[in-house]
Automatic annotation (TrEMBL):
Compartments where located: Cell membrane
Keyword Transmembrane listed: yes
Membrane topology: Multi-pass membrane protein
Name of protein: Uncharacterized protein
């Protein structure tokens, strides 16, 4: 991305900005210090598409898919690596999961590209030839499924270019939803359809049902909250259809993607705070989204409820959760809060008296949640501030637990002595 051959004539991108964009693309974020359309030429756009696809699927998933295609015999060690990268509890059926997940990814993006190419070329929401329509559709398919807010659309206003055109926004909401729900549910959905076609019964797993239903419920609840908070502000005087599309599109993008069809600078600070929390929570695990992940949030909530009711076990969706999973959820939440708060503090120190804590916190939450929504501050950030956001995007994408595992000592120690425990005042 730093090479002149990928950039438009007269454009000179700094090395740090090239790193920032590359990390943002590979982490499926969408934040950028420069305009993609104004900075990069067709070659740069094509390279971006490949980076976005790799970021969406993941290196291990791509390698495993290649092994499956060439018919390589995958060892138990390699299966364990794949299962660990995909947050699977067991290696059983891992190859079938990969195969069906990649089938789902391919079908989803092909349908999106076909529909969007024909629509853009025929309807002409902006002036575009057939090849331009095809390129825009492929780019949006990659960015949409990756849940990254990058686009090559004219005007540098994201989906505001489709104002009054509902089909592109609906199609993009669908592909973002499917990209954010995770590969596990997508793979099981393919299996479900295959079995239905052969008139066989197939029961989806508890985890897949949970991720799909919770993803949808979270979307609807956040849409209601957003509507209530902005109806008398940024939505005032708008037609009903525009308001409905605005509400559904923005809340669908809030936890993972970074497209927008309204000016977020017109939001109240309360709305920005709510969206910062949604971005912090993020998408489903084993998906192209970031943040602490939805399941972590649900385990935290269930743990607090169980503690309040003096239960020995944590119950969620009618099932008892393992204590280790709950402890992991608390650790992920605590470390994520520390990371986001310290990052916001450091940037506010580096950039004194330029922006409020709320504005800086919004950008940091967007980076950690790998969302891509921005108030337009990043082009004005210093090199150190950009490096802090790069760290947040990287950790947000790979996950807190993976980041901690990278730092832990390989030497295992075993406590041979049990010490006397004491109580401590808490709260």
């Amino acid at each position: 991305m730093w090479l002149p051959i990928t950039q438009n004539p007269g454009v000179r991108l700094s090395f740090l900005d090239a790193i920032f964009i590359s990390v943002s693309q590979i982490s499926s974020t969408g934040l950028s210090p420069v305009s993609q359309r104004d900075t990069f030429n067709l070659l740069g756009g094509v390279i971006s598409i490949f980076i976005l696809e790799i970021g969406a699927v993941g290196i291990m998933m791509l390698v495993a898919s290649y092994w499956v295609i060439i018919g390589k015999k995958i060892s138990l060690k390699e299966r364990n690596l794949i299962a660990s990268e995909q947050n699977q509890f067991t290696v059983k059926g891992i190859i079938r999961l990969i195969t069906n997940a990649m089938i789902a990814v391919g079908i989803i993006q092909i349908i999106y590209i076909a529909v969007m190419t024909i629509y853009i070329y025929v309807v002409q929401p902006f002036e575009a030839s057939f090849l331009e329509s095809l390129f825009q559709s492929v780019y949006l398919a990659a960015a949409g499924f990756a849940n990254a807010g990058f686009d090559f659309l004219p005007g540098n206003q994201s989906f505001m270019v489709f104002e009054g055109y509902y089909l592109p926004q609906i199609m993009t909401m669908i592909i973002i939803f499917l990209g954010g729900v995770g590969f596990w549910p997508l793979a099981e959905l393919v299996l479900f359809i295959k079995n239905k076609l052969h008139r066989k019964q197939y029961k989806m797993s508890f985890i897949s049902k949970l991720l799909i239903i919770s993803h949808f419920i979270f979307w609807i609840l956040s849409a209601v909250i957003y509507f209530v908070m902005e109806y008398e502000n940024s939505m005032k005087g708008q037609p009903v259809g525009t308001i409905l599309m605005n509400v559904l599109f923005m809340t669908n993008n809030a936890r993972s993607a970074g497209f927008y069809n309204t000016n977020i600078n017109d939001w109240t600070e309360a709305t920005r705070l709510v969206f910062s929390m949604l971005m912090f929570i993020g998408a489903a695990p084993n998906s192209s989204g970031g943040g602490i992940r939805m399941t972590t949030f649900f385990l935290l909530s269930a743990g607090l409820i169980s503690f309040g009711r003096h239960r020995k076990q944590v119950f969620f969706a009618g099932k008892a959760m393992k204590e280790q999973a709950v402890r992991k959820a608390y650790m992920v939440f605590a470390l994520a809060v520390i990371l986001v708060m310290m990052s916001t503090l450091f940037i506010s120190i580096i950039e004194p008296n330029r922006w409020t804590i709320m504005e800086i916190g919004f950008e940091v939450a967007s980076a950690f949640g790998t969302v891509g929504l921005s108030l337009g501050l990043i082009p004005h950030f210093s090199a150190f501030s950009k490096m802090i956001l790069i760290i947040n995007m990287f950790i947000g994408r790979i996950g807190i637990l993976t980041a901690v595992a990278m730092l832990e000592n390989k030497k295992e120690t075993t406590n041979v002595v049990t010490y006397v425990e004491m109580d401590m005042l808490v709260g």
